[in-house]
Amino acid sequence: MEALLFYTFAAIMVISSLMVILRKNPIHSALFLIVTFFCLGGVFLLLNAQFIAAIQVIVYAGAIMVLFLFVIMLLNVEREVASPSGHGWQKFWAFILSVVIGFSLISVMRATVFTGHQGTFTPETVNAVGNSEIIGRLLFTDFLLPFEITSILLLAAIIGAVILSKKKL
Amino acid sequence: MVPISHYLILSVILFCIGMWGVFTRKNAIVIFMCIELMLNAANLAFIAFSRQLNSVDGQIFVFFVMTVAAAEAAVGLGIIIALYRNRETINVDDVNLMKW
């Protein structure tokens, strides 16, 4: 059952991400990216990361992509026309480079035996308490410093966004 | 039970598709969307390892990656809007003042 769901999500995700980069209309690219993010949330659920799956759908597909769509609509972006200066060589070598890097990384993934220091949070112990509660507990004890620094980072992002939208920079 | 290498291969495929999009597209917003796709591919790798190693640290890190990506999206789109306001274009081929 898990295998069937995973391969379905993976197929939809790969096809949607290919559509993201192949469609000329940026609105279509954004909508296919939303489909990709929903399928990614499903894969996170399969990996027993319920909190991250919910956050993925709420924040990524629900806030960031809506922001993208608003900006695309505000800027009234046209369809991408073919460039007159002939970027054929760049597109060719980009495809070759991506395929080469992809094949080399995939061969590494297939050949490696993944071991490491096993932690204590087996799926049974996590599901006994609740995934969100464990993440909350860790965020406020072990990972408190990154959590507080993230709040400063968000403050900097807010100030940056407000400054960038002024009439005279 | 799907082996972890399948999840990682999916992450690599998504990353390479995003990378291909960054190299190929000319619209600044679509390039930004492909960067978000690459970030999500890395998130998938983190969560896959978090399940493999029976640890929650991977999910905590994905939480922070998502926060950084949200902040970056806000500021980056602000930059793109400011660019459009000054240059009337978001085609990255036309923004070549610093080209030699």
Structural class of chain A: mainly alpha
The major pleated sheet of chain B works out as:
none
Instruction: Report the sheet-strand fraction of chain A.
Output: under 5%
Major sheet of chain A, described briefly? none
Count of distinct structural domains of chain A: 2
Alpha-beta classification of chain B: mainly alpha
The parts of chain B where pLDDT drops under 50 for at least 5 residues are none
Silhouette of chain B:
elongated
SS element count, helices of chain A: 7
Strand tally of chain B is: 0
CATH topology of the domain at 26-87 in chain B: Helix Hairpins
CATH architecture of the domain at 26-87 in chain B: Orthogonal Bundle
Average residue-wise pLDDT of chain B: 92
- Describe the oligomeric state of these chains in a short phrase: heterodimer
Largest interface: A-B, 83 and 69 residues
Structure description:
The complex is a heterodimer of chains A (169) and B (100). Chain A is an all-alpha fold. Chain A folds into 2 domains: 1-79, Four Helix Bundle (Hemerythrin (Met), subunit A), CATH 1.20.120; 127-169. Chain A is built from 7 helices and no strands. The longest helix of chain A has 26 residues, at 50-75. With 100 residues, chain B is mainly alpha-helical. Chain B has a domain at 26-87: Helix Hairpins. In chain B, 77% of the residues lie in helices and 0% in strands. The longest helix of chain B has 31 residues, at 57-87.
Quick tags:
heterodimer, A: 169 residues, mainly alpha, Four Helix Bundle (Hemerythrin (Met), subunit A), 2 domains, 78% helix, B: 100 residues, Helix Hairpins, elongated
Spell out the blueprint of helices and strands.
The complex is a heterodimer of chains A (169) and B (100).
Chain A lengths: L1 H21 L3 H21 L3 H26 L12 H24 L11 H7 L1 H11 L2 H21 L5
Helix pairs in contact in A: 1-2, 2-3
Chain B lengths: L3 H21 L3 H25 L4 H31 L13
Helix pairs in contact in B: 1-2, 2-3
